Amino acid sequence: MYASERKGLKDMPDNQSNNGQPWDVIIVGAGIAGLTSSIFLAQGGLSVLLLDKGSQPGGRAASTGMASASVNLGAHALFKSGLAILQEAGAVPAGSVPGPPDTFVFKGEDGGSIAFPLSRLLLGSFLKWHEKTELIRFYSRLRRTDTSRLQAVTLQAYLESQISSMRVRSALLALVRVSTYCDAPGLISAGAVIEQLKHGQVLYVDGGWQTLVKQLTNHARKAGVSIRTGSPVSKITGSHPEMTVFLKDGTQLNSRYVISTAGPKDTLAMLDPALEAEEAAVYNKLIPVHAACLDLVMPEIPRPRTRFVLGADYPWYYSNHSAAAVLSEDPTLAVVHVMKYLPPSGADDPASDRVELEGFLDLIQPGWRSHVIKQRYLPRMLVSHAAVTAEGGGTAGRPGVAVAGRPGLYVAGDWAGPVGMLVNASLHSARQAARSILAIREVGK
Ligand SMILES: Cc1cc2nc3c(=O)[nH]c(=O)nc-3n(C[C@H](O)[C@H](O)[C@H](O)COP(=O)(O)OP(=O)(O)OC[C@H]3O[C@@H](n4cnc5c(N)ncnc54)[C@H](O)[C@@H]3O)c2cc1C
Q1: Quick one: pLDDT at residue 443?
Q2: 197 phi, psi to nearest 5 deg
Q3: What's domain 3-62+210-286+391-444's architecture?
């Protein structure tokens, strides 16, 4: 018997048991993926319990209050290509599209850093005539590029075959980093990167990504989803239709299906019995992507017209998000995100990364220190569980949402399913996992 056939379930308050019945679906993790799949499943008439170990839903999409501004955990920009699924799930975020990068930072011939406004880069003499035409030609061909042939080609190999100028390659790598958060041209798939660049328009969300979290959480509750925070899951056993989810405090919860939106390694650690070695190897070889983030709240910006800066010869990012989104009721406050894209090797050093980011700010916003009223340094944020690699053949190389050999178990997140990158991968895999479960239910009726 499914929830849709039981009476009164939609009226049940949060954090209650399911009237002694197994849940139709238990979802581990109330980030964007967990919230989204919970809404589709509950709308399909199933009873859904959403568990999170944190004290609030949202995961990495949560924003926090800093000096009366809503500040994301590092710079977050919503790719507009993900809006359709969010809207389907009931989230309609307001916000604005930021302008293009206005400044690029290159290494000068004396070894120092030089910040070039875009206009000077395109009209001045730093880039030679043939370099400018190479850059423009590459960009104008982008939309027509057949990416299917390039999924298993590394970005580095592709750029070397297309672009002769090192400076043009550096400028393009800056645009790749801002679209993928990944500083690993020798690893990532050229095909997947070009797809991402083609769908590169983003939105800075009013109120920060917490707005998405709030809208999805409210929608999930309205659809009848029970949400329990402070509930770390330690073990998942069984297979459809008799699965059990164990919480760390020993609580056992029964369900017909389980979706894990925890990361690949955490998901593997929860499974009892363990996955077959071959399947586990697919999870284990995913390469996480990290960034060092410096988040600032400033009432005044020394150079207000410098809004969006990318390092070309350096993996740096600067953006005044308040230039495009409303992030505080106080219109004089600006939320500024500064970031270093970290190498996948893990060879980073939090203290020297911070000194590097502060030096970057000294270059583009001299005197910034005296204007900061609140700051937060997050030295090693997990941006994505899985870089989209050429070795894996692009996004198709990520684990599928249905876990092989474990009927009833599904995964979703920015490391699962064949579509999208970053939160768009979370959204697509979340919807796909929900649809797969609903489709089985339809067949079983
Ligand atoms: C600095 C930074 C910048 C980013 N910028 C962008 C951007 O510009 N554009 C973009 O598209 N994406 C961006 N992202 C990525 C985006 O935030 C994530 O892809 C997305 O939020 C992931 O959502 P999720 O639900 O898949 O995973 P998560 O948000 O990680 O949610 C998983 C949830 O599972 C819970 N959980 C884990 N294990 C357990 C357990 N054992 N028991 C119970 N609960 C558990 C966690 O507490 C968490 O809430 C950025 C990320 C960071 C960190």
Answers
A1: 63
A2: -65, -35
A3: 3-Layer(bba) Sandwich (3.50)
| Mean per-residue pLDDT over the chain, rounded | 94
Given a cut of 50, whether residue 368 has pLDDT beyond it is yes
pLDDT at 234 over 60: yes
| Predicted confidence (pLDDT) per residue in 302-350, tens digit | 999 999 999 999 999 999 999 999 999 999 999 999 999 999 887 879 9
The percent of residues above 90 in pLDDT, for the chain, comes to 89
Q: How far is the CA of 325 from the centre of ligand 1 (A)?
A: 21
Pocket test for ligand 1, best of 422, 424, 427, 432 (most atoms within 8 A of CB): 422
Mutational pocket test of ligand 1: of 210, 310, 414, the residue with most ligand atoms within 8 Å of the beta carbon: 414
Atom from ligand 1 closest to the CA of residue 82? 11
In percent, how much of the chain has pLDDT > 70? 95
**Would you list the domain boundaries of the chain?**
3-62+210-286+391-444, 128-200
pTM, to two decimals = 0.95
Q: Residues lining ligand 1, judged by CB closer than 6 Å?
A: 28-34, 51-54, 59-61, 73-77, 79, 232-233, 261-262, 266, 291, 293, 381-384, 413-414, 422-424, 426
Q: pLDDT tens digits, residue range 120-139?
A: 988 999 999 999 999 999 98
Q: What is the mean pLDDT of residues 176-194?
A: 97
